[in-house]
Specification:
heterodimer; A: 111 residues; mainly beta; six-stranded mixed beta sheet; five-stranded antiparallel beta sheet; 11 strands; B: 116 residues; seven-stranded mixed beta sheet; four-stranded antiparallel beta sheet; globular
Chain lengths: 111, 116
């Protein structure tokens, strides 16, 4: 059974800091990995999707990497801003189509 | 274009009552997914539709839960004889391919269900 872990559960950083959010998964037989953002009381917004054959994806200040063999992904946020404050969720997609999610990291960026 | 929409946004019901939650996927998306987000449990998969068929119902927690999809579009998740542990946010997502396709799932805003 696939398990996805995100540690720590919460993180607080000062504005402007570069930061890395970590995600690990137990079964390397994945089709893709997605990073999502969730604001309080809202749904999920897809940030980046990395296919199993890819090593990284970039969008603006965000960069996600994938090391499938070791079961790890990182989300790098450059020059963090207070508007980046949200919960970041990592999810992996297996052969059965469903996404298995981590419990998320709640990020607070202090002005 | 419009994203995934869900209704109602909030539902408060009494224990033992039945509830119906609705999801309108992005137009043209063949795959539709239901997830549940509970405090302390994170996001859990419930059911997946490809067209009107549900090849994977493995996440439905009990036989009180059922879902259908008609016309390859709208889906309804029904919970019968609701229990307090059913209280959660129910999220719907759709994608253009599904199956083992390498596609992004787009999520709706969710329905917050509270069972008193």
């Amino acid at each position: 059974k696939q398990e996805v872990t995100q540690i720590p559960a919460a993180l607080s950083v000062p504005e402007g800091e570069n930061l890395v959010l970590n995600c690990s998964f137990t079964d390397s037989a994945i089709y893709n990995l997605q990073w999502f953002r969730q604001d309080p009381g809202k749904g999920l917004t897809s940030l980046l999707l990395i296919q199993s054959s890819q090593r990284e994806q970039t969008s603006g200040r965000l960069n996600a990497s994938l090391d499938k063999s070791s079961g790890r992904s990182t989300l790098y946020i450059a020059a963090s801003q207070p508007g980046d404050s949200a919960t970041y969720l990592c999810a992996v997609k297996g052969a059965n189509s469903k996404l298995t999610f981590g419990k998320g990291i709640t990020l607070s960026v202090r002005p | 274009g419009a994203g995934v929409s869900q209704s109602p946004s909030n539902k408060v019901t009494e224990k033992g009552k039945d509830v119906e939650l609705r999801c309108d996927p992005i137009s043209g998306h063949t795959a539709l997914y239901w997830y549940r987000q509970s405090l302390g449990q994170g996001l859990e998969f419930l059911i997946y539709f490809q067209g009107n068929s549900a090849p994977d119902k493995s996440g439905l927690p009990s036989d009180r839960f059922s879902a259908e999809r008609t016309g390859g579009s709208v889906s309804t998740l029904t919970i019968q004889r609701t229990q307090q542990e059913d209280s959660a946010v129910y999220l719907c997502a759709s994608s253009s391919v599904g199956g083992s396709g390498l596609d992004t799932q787009y999520f709706g805003p969710g329905t917050r269900l509270t069972v008193l």
